[in-house]
Amino acid sequence: MRRLAYISILVALWLFGMAALMLGLDGLFHPPFCPQALFAGASFAAFATVSLAEEVAEWRAARGALSVGRVVLR
Predict the structure, then answer these.
(1) How far apart are CA 59 and CA 62, in angstroms?
(2) Residue 70 pLDDT
(3) What is the 3-state secondary structure (H, E, C) of the chain?
(4) How many Å apart are CA 27 and CA 6, to the nearest integer?
(5) Residue from 53, 27, 30, 55 nearest 40 by CA
(6) What is the rounded CA–CA span in Å between residue 20 and residue 38?
(7) How far is CA 17 from CA 12, 24, 39, 59, 68, in A?
(8) Digits of tens for pLDDT over the chain (74 positions)?
(9) In the chain, which end has fewer C-beta atoms inside a 10 angstrom radius, N or C?
């Protein structure tokens, strides 16, 4: 249940980041240009993308999927 809540929050954060990124890019062609929207959207979307990929890999590894290798840090 916690994993589902965490993934849902990351998906919402990804959607928010992509929306901010699109609004920032739209401002390039229209007068109210806001570079903070570009930076915030890109950073939120990048963080959520990497975190979601990690969660999916952990979820697949916990289910015993053969296509996911385990990472061993030494």
Answers:
(1) 5
(2) 62
(3) CHHHHHHHHHHHHHHHHHHHHHHHHHCCCCCCCCHHHHHHHHHHHHHHHHHHHHHHHHHHHHHCCCCCCCCCCC
(4) 32
(5) 27
(6) 7
(7) 9, 10, 9, 24, 28
(8) 788 888 888 889 899 989 888 888 888 887 777 788 888 888 888 998 999 888 888 887 777 666 656 666 66
(9) C
User: Crossing angle of helices 35-63/2-26, nearest 10°?
Assistant: 150
Nearest to 49 by CA among 17, 4, 24: 17
pLDDT value of position 6: 87
Tokens of 49: 């993308």
Q: Tell me the C-alpha distance between 74 and 58, whole Å.
A: 19
Kindly state the tokens that stand for 6.
Answer: 């965490």
Q: Cα(17)–Cα(40) distance, rounded to whole angstroms?
A: 7
